[in-house]
Amino acid sequence: EVQLVESGGGLVKPGRSLRLSCSTSGFNFGNSALSWFRQAPGKGLEWLGFIRSKAYGETTEYAASVQGRFTISRDDSTSTAYLQMNSLKTEDTAVYHCGRDPGGTYWGRGTLVTVSS
Amino acid sequence: DIEMTQTPLSLSVTPGQPASISCKSSESLLHSSGKTHLYWYLQRPGQPPQLLIYEVFNRFSGVSDRFSGSASGTDFTLKISRVEAEDVGIYYCMQTIRVPITFGQGTRLEF
After folding, report:
1. DSSP string spanning A38-89?
2. Which residues, 6 or more positions from B48, have their beta carbon under 8 angstroms from its beta carbon?
3. Which of A86, B11, B73, B78 sits 20 to 30 Å CA-CA off B29?
4. pLDDT of A49-70, one tens digit each?
5. Dihedral through CA B17, CA B22, CA A107, CA A113, nearest 10?
6. Which of B3, B59, B99 to mutate to test the interface with A (most CBs of A within 10 A)?
């Protein structure tokens, strides 16, 4: 069974940083791209970015809204992906989901990030 | 960016009746491989999105055959042949042919 479990969310002040983790199982992590998405309260889905597999150089793509502030990385030895979020803004408040493949064939349940002073 | 426009934004249906959701992309989603990068997701209340349809008309593993997808150029349609209680939620279309990956606004289906 494919599973993705996000962790690391919480309450953080504007301007601070937070790192989210996405622990996975049930599929060949090393051969898969991993994506991050978010959903602000009461809003729709927003793609944030993805990281390709090692075979594709672990290259990354990002949405303009997070380019330069957020960084996606991966650790194939632990089947875990990460989302490093810097210079957080109040508008980054959302539930953050990781997904397998660029479009998210499978999604985790998400972790809530609240940015507030 | 490729804009994805869904209609309607809200849909009230009677159980057992059909339902249809449209999604229009601002550009072609046809890849040189011959595949069209259009996906449909359902987000049930309190749940993460789940993939229903990939590449326009392919049902994902475990998805009921009551769901079907079709396309005409840049116009895409998701049809539910007979709506059931478990189909309530928000439906999203999504394109992955070009970054940024973009979603439609979502269509809320309710009874």
Report:
1. EE-TT---EEEEEE--GGGTT-EEE-TTTTTTEEEEEETTTTEEEEEE-S--
2. A97, A107, A108, A109, A110
3. B11
4. 999 999 999 999 999 999 999 9
5. -110
6. B99
